[in-house]
Specification:
The protein is of the alpha/beta class and 249 residues long. It has six helices and 14 strands. It has helices at 24-35, 67-90, 100-105, 204-207, 209-220, 234-246, and strands spanning 7-13, 40-46, 59-62, 94-98, 108-111, 114-117, 124-128, 134-142, 151-159, 161-165, 173-177, 187-188, 190-192, 195-198.
Length: 249
C-alpha cells in the first residue's frame, strides 16, 4: 500500500482527564512518525458521556489520571464505551492503556473498600496495597513478534496499585530493572493480541520510538518493516539509550 494512501486513525479517550503523565507526548510521537513517512493521521477524541465508534479508529489510547478522575472515567467507560472497545479489539484494532488506563482495561481496581469495575478487555485485576508506591526507572524485555528477537522497553513507573495477571493473561514483558506489575512477580504489563497495558510512562513512546512504529504498523495491519526506515532516527536512539541508562541498563 503506498504510504500516501494510508491513514492512521487514533482515538484519545478522556485526554483532558487522563493526562497526568504527559500522555499527549505519546500522541505527538505517533503523529510525527506517521507524517515523516507520508502516512495520514487523524486524531479523534472521545470524552465523558460520548458513545465510542468501534470502527472509527485504528488505535485507541487511554492514559493515566488522578484517582478522582480515574473513578469518573471508569464509570463512563463501563456505561458508554465498554462494548465498543470490545468490538474494536475483536476486529484487531490496537488498544493501549498506560498506568491508570492499564488498570481500567482489566476486570477491577480495588481501592480500600471500593471496587472499581473495569472494561474487562484483559484478565487482570488491581489492588491498592498497604505498602510503598512502586516508583522508579524501569526496563523490560518484550517479544512482540515470534520471529523477531526480544527488545527492551524503558520508561518510568509510579503506581500504588499492584496488578495481578489472571490465568488467561500474558505479560507484556519480563522485568530487567524496576518493579513491574506488583513488585514481586517479575512481570510487567499485559498483552492480549493488539491490546496492551503497561505502567511505563514518562511518556512511553518518546523513549521507545521503535515501539511507536510497532503500534502504528499493528494498527494499520502491516509489518513494521513495511513502514520503511526513517533517514534520521539519531535523537530517538539517544532518547532510548538515555532511558536505558536511567534504569541502570
Amino acid at each position: 500500500m503506498p504510504s500516501q494512501a494510508r491513514k492512521l486513525r487514533v482515538c484519545a479517550l478522556y485526554p483532558d482527564l487522563m493526562n497526568i503523565y504527559a500522555d499527549r507526548g505519546n500522541l505527538i510521537v505517533l503523529e510525527r512518525r506517521c507524517a515523516w513517512r507520508g502516512i495520514g493521521f487523524q486524531l479523534n477524541v472521545c470524552g465523558m458521556g460520548e458513545q465510542l465508534d468501534s470502527d472509527g479508529s485504528d488505535l485507541f489510547y487511554l492514559g493515566g489520571g488522578q484517582d478522582r478522575d480515574q473513578l469518573l472515567c471508569a464509570a463512563d467507560l463501563v456505561s458508554f464505551k465498554r462494548a465498543a472497545l470490545h468490538r474494536a479489539a475483536d476486529r484487531g484494532a490496537v488498544v493501549l492503556g498506560v498506568c491508570g488506563g492499564y488498570q481500567l482495561l482489566g476486570h477491577s481496581y480495588v481501592v480500600g473498600e471500593q471496587e472499581i469495575t473495569g472494561v474487562g478487555l484483559v484478565d487482570v485485576h488491581t489492588v491498592r496495597a498497604a505498602a510503598p508506591r512502586l516508583i522508579g526507572n524501569i526496563a523490560i524485555e518484550v517479544q512482540l513478534e515470534q520471529q523477531s528477537p526480544p527488545r527492551v522497553l524503558a520508561g518510568f513507573e509510579n503506581h500504588g496499585g499492584r496488578t495481578h495477571l489472571g490465568a488467561h493473561a500474558e505479560p507484556l514483558g519480563r522485568v530487567l530493572k524496576g518493579h513491574g506489575n506488583d513488585g514481586t512477580s517479575g512481570y510487567e504489563g499485559v498483552r492480549r493480541a493488539n491490546v496492551i497495558g503497561t505502567y511505563l510512562h514518562g511518556p512511553l513512546l518518546p523513549k521507545n520510538a521503535w515501539f511507536a512504529d510497532w503500534l502504528i504498523a499493528a494498527a494499520l495491519g502491516v509489518q513494521p518493516r513495511d513502514l520503511g526506515e526513517l533517514p534520521d532516527d539519531e535523537l530517538e536512539s539517544q532518547a532510548h539509550a538515555s532511558a536505558l541508562r536511567a534504569a541502570g541498563m
